[in-house]
Design brief:
477 residues; 7 strands
């Protein structure tokens, strides 16, 4: 390294390095790649309605600002107002843009975090790229759902925690608050964020004081308590219950006790098809733990175990509940990749990215195939206008309106007091009423639906995707 002498403060002579490594390309690379990923997600948008997608669109259409996952609709409303400055934008388009931006931001924050830890921009971008190209991230960046937004929130939270500014306790508290702006399951990340806040390299013999750990733990607990109090005050006591946790115990524990291998099989089903190669790096990160990054490896374990248990005990959702682990899986890949590429070329990095793409693209195509949209395309040319389609659920009803161009009503469970209103809505002579064949097949799964359908005389119609209503009875047949 070349050095030159210059006059310092009050005439002192100091030496300065003239060839320090330039970091500006390091900062630009993740931003450029995030922009390219945003274009990729937008170009491969599938438009599927999965899980809460239709509900989120309806809430934004109604002007709702608050939801149990507090940050999502707030961000959606801000984005909607911003996009509306350039012209009329539908709520569905706004949420589509939010998903694309969330996927790109999740990569950006995770890549910056990985660079902070390993100090190599190639490794950081490769590790984050493995996550960005995984089937679960790619799919959720192309649909309306909350989980990729939650991945971006958890990645930003992890970055704030690791930087530990101005202090580790404050950083851990702020990180917990930011993570909780996503999906409520992000509360399971709090132990990992705590370890991440205290994982930076320190002088030899130094260790975080117990007082700092207690302050960080108390601050994180206060963030969780504040969120629950907010939900209770604003949305009501029914939303302040950890209902998604309470439902897991009766649903998941009996199979686990009956078949001890159940947990391992469910974790395999939720992680490997969803994330491709990334889960393979987790044991490597835990085995090869250099002194400088031991705390980072511990944070991966402390965040991964509770979220993995949640995903394993929850109903099968193709890894949807594991998306909050985005930054921790990126760290799990970055640690061994940094060791593997030390002193070598980028061949290793290119090889793992190609391997991930080879695994991810077929799975992404399979997961992105939308049977509901295909159904709406088929019935588009079959129904007579004007028409009313009784579809299964709000997602298929929305597709029937947008794609098939017909009035549609999404049905599921039918409370007894609403049967008469539904009968009145389908009794008008001015339009033809059709019933989704899936409703007929699955009517036993929805309480009260069989009673309503028993008042309709129906006949199979067209290609078998619909039944046509020929007569409506005021009393059950």
């Amino acid at each position: 390294m070349q050095r030159r002498r210059r006059r310092g403060y009050r005439g002192a002579t100091v030496e300065t390095a003239t060839d320090l490594p330039r970091r500006s390309p390091v900062k630009r690379a993740p931003l450029w790649i995030a922009s390219i990923l945003g274009l990729l997600y937008a170009a491969t948008w599938s438009g599927r309605y999965i899980h809460d997608g239709p509900i989120l669109v309806e809430k934004l259409e109604e002007g709702a600002v608050l939801y149990i996952h507090v940050g999502y609709l707030l961000a959606a409303n801000v984005l909607h107002r911003g996009l509306s400055l350039f012209g009329t934008v539908s709520p569905e388009t706004t949420l589509a843009v939010l998903s694309v931006l969330s996927g790109a931001c999740a990569f950006l924050f995770a890549a910056l975090l990985a660079f902070e830890v390993v100090g190599d921009s190639r490794v950081a971008c490769t590790a984050a790229g493995l996550a960005a190209l995984s089937p679960v991230v790619w799919l959720h960046s192309g649909i309306v759902e909350i989980h990729v937004f939650s991945a971006a929130a958890s990645s930003l939270a992890a970055l704030l925690a690791y930087r530990s500014r101005p202090s580790a306790p404050l950083a851990a508290t702020a990180a917990a608050g930011v993570a909780l702006f996503g999906h409520l399951s992000s509360l399971f990340l709090v132990p990992g964020l705590l370890f991440l806040a205290f994982s930076k390299e320190r002088p030899a013999g130094a260790s975080p004081r117990i007082r700092s750990w207690l302050l960080a733990s108390a601050g994180s607990a206060a963030a969780i308590a504040a969120l629950w109090l907010f939900l209770w005050l604003v949305l009501g006591a029914q939303w302040a219950r950890p209902s998604f946790v309470s439902r897991l115990v009766p649903r998941g524990v009996p199979p686990l006790l009956e078949h001890p291998s159940f947990l391992g099989l469910r974790m395999e089903e939720e992680f490997f098809p969803a994330w491709g190669l990334l889960p393979l790096f987790v044991p490597l990160a835990l085995i090869h733990r250099p002194e400088r990054t031991g705390g980072v490896a511990a944070s991966v374990l402390c965040a991964g175990v509770p979220v993995a248990l949640l995903a394993a005990l929850a109903p099968p959702y193709d890894g949807m509940y594991t998306l909050v682990l985005y930054p921790f899986l990126v760290l799990a890949a970055a640690l061994p990749l940094a060791r593997a590429t030390r002193g070598r070329t980028a061949v290793v990095l290119v090889a793992v990215l190609v391997g991930q793409a080879a695994l991810a693209i077929p799975e992404r195509v399979r997961a992105g195939d939308d049977p509901d949209r295909a159904w709406a395309e088929r019935v588009k040319g079959e129904v007579a206008r004007p028409a009313l389609i009784l579809a299964e659920g709000p997602g298929r009803a929305r597709l029937a309106r947008r794609v098939a161009g017909a009035e549609a009503l999404g049905l599921g469970p039918v409370p007894p007091e609403t049967v008469g209103l539904l009968v009145d809505s389908v009794s008008g002579p001015e339009r033809t009423v059709y019933v989704d064949a899936r409703l007929v097949r699955h009517q036993a799964e929805f309480p009260g639906l069989s009673g309503f359908l028993s008042r309709l005389e129906i006949e199979r119609f067209g290609g078998g995707d619909l039944y046509r209503v020929t007569r409506v009875s005021r009393s059950p047949r």
